[in-house]
Amino acid sequence: MKKAQVIINPSSGRGKAEDYADPIIKILEKRYEEVEIRKTEGAGDAKRFADEGTRDGANLIVAVGGDGTVNEAVNGIASHEKRPKFAIIPLGTVNDLARVLGIPLDPEEAIEILSEEHLVTIDLAKASDTYFTNGLAVGKIPESIHEVTAEEKSKLGPLAYIWAGAKKLLENEKIAVKVLSEEREFEGELTAVVMSLTGQLGGIKEVFPEAKLQDGKIHILLVHEMDLAETAKILPEILSRQITESENMTYITTEKVTLEALHGEDYVSDVDGEEGPHLPFTVEVLKAHLQVLVP
Ligand SMILES: Nc1ncnc2c1ncn2[C@@H]1O[C@H](COP(=O)(O)OP(=O)(O)OP(=O)(O)O)[C@@H](O)[C@H]1O
């Protein structure tokens, strides 16, 4: 018996998420004998539902919501040996993974992907016990993301994050870290450590032009200096996809990397736009770990 589970965050999509339940059920009932709808009420629900759905033998899990919901669902699935296929109906402000995979950002169009079974297999990464699909960052600028309130987000949209980051950029506060990988070691002060599986960060495409969803690698930028003048200088490089190595940047491609605070400070990471583990931790790539429905 084929089972599908649909996890909906009713608070996403400007409160319209639940309107999509009926059309989703209609499409899925053509392919699955059992379709279960579960609505989240708060943090942790989407992870728990996906974990239970996976244990229960679901063949497909659909996340209907923003990046927070998608991340949680992936975290509920990823630790299991036998994993269901995964689908995203994007209803967030950024929708990083959906963008990378070419999933339509219009929910009505996105629902159409459920009527067929075009799959791509993507890498995931794991930092401590947290799985992620897109990126991880450490530094005062990434930390500022967690200070953006829901009110600012609904008022300003993605600009809220840019605004929060820009304020921190002006303060130019560094982190003292040790970065260890087989390919390279670094010890010292950095503005930020930014890593990506997909090449995309915060909605900006191809920050890491060499990154592929299935290359088994994580792409890491050590940002040494990033005051306002420097940023203005390198931003065109970033946007024109020429970032590799410069005085201000070290670029590392690896399968496994460890981050430690040098003097015992408490630094928290940002993982796919949510608060992630505190240093120290190791990030590892899990090659071809999740099958995702795409158009
Ligand atoms: N029923 C609910 N009411 C209010 N908040 C909820 C509910 N269910 C889940 N949440 C919260 O919503 C958060 C996830 O939101 P999600 O990412 O899906 O949408 P978003 O915030 O609009 O998107 P984005 O992350 O792209 O900005 C979770 O952290 C969770 O705590």
From TrEMBL:
Necessary cofactors: Mg(2+)
GO molecular function: ATP binding; ATP-dependent diacylglycerol kinase activity; metal ion binding
Cellular component per GO, a single term: plasma membrane
Keywords: ATP-binding, Kinase, Lipid biosynthesis, Lipid metabolism, Magnesium, Metal-binding, Nucleotide-binding, Phospholipid biosynthesis, Phospholipid metabolism, Transferase
Family: Belongs to the diacylglycerol/lipid kinase family.
Record PANTHER family: LIPID KINASE YEGS (PTHR12358:SF106), SPHINGOSINE KINASE (PTHR12358)
Protein name per its UniProtKB record: Diacylglycerol kinase family lipid kinase
